[in-house]
Design a protein that fits this description.
Protein name: 3-oxoacyl-ACP reductase
Largest sheet: 8 strands, mixed
Keywords: Oxidoreductase
Bound molecules: nicotinamide-adenine-dinucleotide
Number of helices: 9
Family: Belongs to the short-chain dehydrogenases/reductases (SDR) family.
Helix content: 25-40%
Distance between the termini: 39 Å
InterPro entries: NAD(P)-bd_dom_sf (IPR036291), Peroxidases_AS (IPR019794), Peroxisomal_Beta-Oxidation (IPR051687), Sc_DH/Rdtase_CS (IPR020904), SDR_fam (IPR002347)
CATH class: Alpha Beta
CATH architecture: 3-Layer(aba) Sandwich
Order of helices and strands: EHEHEHEHEHHEHHEEH
Number of strands: 8
GO molecular function, one term: peroxidase activity
């Protein structure tokens, strides 16, 4: 074990680790010294990621299974404890898309996306935080515990063709902040990233990689995950980051844009109508609770040439 690496001695579980961002983040955590528990649906791709990590001198065990299953969350923590004696880092990354406009979406398309993303984040978080809380109560001190969740700018934008995905990713941000608050005293730090990367999920949208360095390579996202999982992550919790290309942006929380107080203590509909009118004078209205500031952060945004 190389003691000088930032994650030396740490144990990290990564969901959806067989491909794309998860595979890259797992490799980066291993390169930073962590021992890995890799989750994804069973298959050769997951074995391949573990083989690569081992070939580079790292350690990896597998925990295949549907991340939204209660038993998979339980098994993820059990594998970490059995194989390495504990768990320090949980990277929730597994995901699927079933894009469709809200008026055409099937029950199955809605359920599948909410299940894998939102329930999938919850189930692993449930068992990891229970483990950390127990450890903290046993030792009487906060433990080393990091959660990196995966949200998306689809939530920030209210992506029109992805009502299921945008809702799941919004839920993940709320889960992240709730976890950060609820588990802080045990040492848990929980943050969310909104990545952009050229993967199987986004290949159709982004097209083929350019010649030379790819600004949308998943490798551009992995350093933030390594930092949040590492010692510096002790001072960061309940935050949401946008990360891709050469940029890492820290989002601010939602703010109160305007507040209206009734002159006589209680609004009538007519008085409220008159009070709100100046703020909502444009027509047709554009969605207001939307963050578009992240779009131009780097030149290589969706749909633009890198
Ligand atoms: N690529 C992007 O630009 C982008 C943008 C925003 C958010 N994200 C998020 O990043 C994460 C990774 O996406 P990606 O681009 O690497 O996609 P990807 O399709 O390459 O990888 C997703 C992985 O999740 C696995 N997975 C799916 N369902 C699972 C389940 N039930 N249990 C366990 N594993 C399961 C898949 O097998 C796959 O290996 C997702 O949460 C995605 O929503 C990606």
């Amino acid at each position: 074990m190389n003691e000088e690496l930032p994650l030396s001695g740490r144990v990290a579980a990564v969901t959806g680790a067989a491909n794309g961002l998860g595979a890259t983040e797992a490799a980066a955590l291993a390169a930073a010294g962590a021992r890995l528990v890799l989750n994804d649906l069973p298959g050769a791709a997951l074995d391949g990621v573990a083989d690569k990590i081992r070939a580079s001198g790292g350690e990896a065990v597998l925990c295949p299974g549907d991340v939204a299953e209660w038993s998979t969350g339980q098994e993820l923590v059990r594998r970490a404890v059995e194989s390495y004696g504990g768990l320090d880092i949980l990277v929730n990354n597994a995901g699927v898309l079933r894009d469709r406009m809200v008026f055409s979406m099937s029950e199955q398309e809605w359920d599948a996306v909410i299940r894998v993303h939102l329930r999938g984040h919850f189930v692993t978080t449930r068992f990891a935080t229970a483990y950390w809380r127990d450890r903290s109560k046993t030792t009487g001190a906060p433990v080393y515990a990091r959660i990196v969740n995966t949200s998306s700018e689809a939530f920030l934008l209210g992506s029109a063709g992805q009502p299921n995905y945008a809702a799941a990713k919004g839920g993940i941000v709320a889960l992240t902040v709730s976890t950060a608050r609820g588990c802080a005293r045990y040492g848990v730090r929980a943050n969310a990233i909104c990545p952009r990367a050229r993967t199987a999920m986004t290949g159709d949208l982004m097209g083929p990689a350019p010649q030379g360095p790819d600004p949308m390579a998943p490798e551009r996202v992995a350093p933030l995950v390594t930092v949040l999982a590492g010692p510096a992550g002790a001072r960061i919790t309940g935050e949401v980051f946008v990360v891709h290309s050469d940029v890492v942006a820290v989002l601010g929380p939602p703010t109160v844009r305007a507040a209206f107080h009734a002159a006589d203590g209680q609004w009538s509909a007519a008085a409220l109508d008159a009070a709100l009118a100046p703020l909502f004078s444009g027509y047709p209205p554009q969605p207001g609770f939307v963050c578009e500031e992240t779009l131009p952060l780097a030149p290589a945004t969706f749909g633009e040439e890198a």
